Amino acid sequence: MLQVCSRSKVIYNKNKIFVVRFINRLYELIEMNKTIFTLFFILFFSIVGNSQNFKISKIIIDKTTKSPLENVSIYNDKDNSTTNQEGLFVFVSSQNEINFNLLGYNFLKTTFEEIEKKDTIFMESKAIVLKEVVLVNLEPFIKKVYGKMAENYISNYTSNFFLRNVLKKDNSIVVLQDIHAKRGKNANTKNSSEIEVLNMRKISFFEKENKIDFEFPDFNEFFGGIFPALDKNIFTEVDCNEADFRKIIFEEKEKNQLGQSGKGYFVINRNDYAIVEFFVSNYDNPKVVPYKKFALSSTQYRTTKYEKLMRFSKSNTLKKYYLNLSKLDAQVEVMPDKKSEKTFNYNLSIDYFVTNSITNEKVTSNFAVDKDIFKAKFPYSDDFWNKQNQLPLTKELKEFLNLVSENKDKKKEFEIIGNF
Description:
globular, 18% helix
């Protein structure tokens, strides 16, 4: 039998007497002091709300061209991410704020809730205001930029990062390597980095008949960068569609031993003279580069492309800059036989981005910075790679992994090296 009273439901069941009494007592407390009870719930749900992680995955494209935008910085005070070549990103943070930034485009600041309402994120490029060309001596300005580097950049810090290493033979992927690690940056001139690999997945897939050993860069090479010397380069300022920045292009005055002139550009903050973006290309006339020969083989090769992009972000707490994103693209042309006119290319692309705000955490080095990156040997964690969400696989990479899976038993035809 059920009887309804003004304050509670009384259920004639011995097992429920305690619960009913507790509810009655709670009701009396609420009536006695609604203010305290309300404040308690506000505080409770505030704590719960702040401890949750927000997650979003979208595609960013140019508003005008509708082309996907690569290397867009997605960040807040705690976390970082970036877009891949498809314009896709995944961003996870406990802070309900997202900033989108790409030089040459309007800055976008929003929240997870607002972005969730959109199918696609459009970024609008800034209009380039053409200025009157004025020939100026840029040497004093560049000297000041170089002179303030010790002041502008953080010399010691730790960053968590993802690195993706992809090698293609012409248009077909043959190597995939993803690394999740810590980098300890220091002021050591010889080895300015320490690397602690936390998770890794890698796979290579070569036809045995045509396999060529490929040497990958090491971390010293990847993180290293020599800015152009003042006396050996010509510097020219060009229009920049960012009012707070100056864009300076440079080109070496003389050809090197391979008949090449390095060229590139800086993007420099006008207010503090910090380089926020640096690009260099070491090959401007690859056709004249002589071939080298593999030992005990008629196969020849030559490097025809070597480009590096580096972007620096400013720490909100230290008010100094650190490397936030880096990209290396290289191409090696291979001639299998001297008599053959047919060549093919190996195209290497290495992408690096920092995943959260820098710290002073200790790094326990477990991989030498002067060792070929692909030679890293660490176990595969199925749990980590299935749950991680900051380095999504592109459609092309998924197709490559399916291809490897379909041919994994054809050991006479293919050489497969990997940890998963």
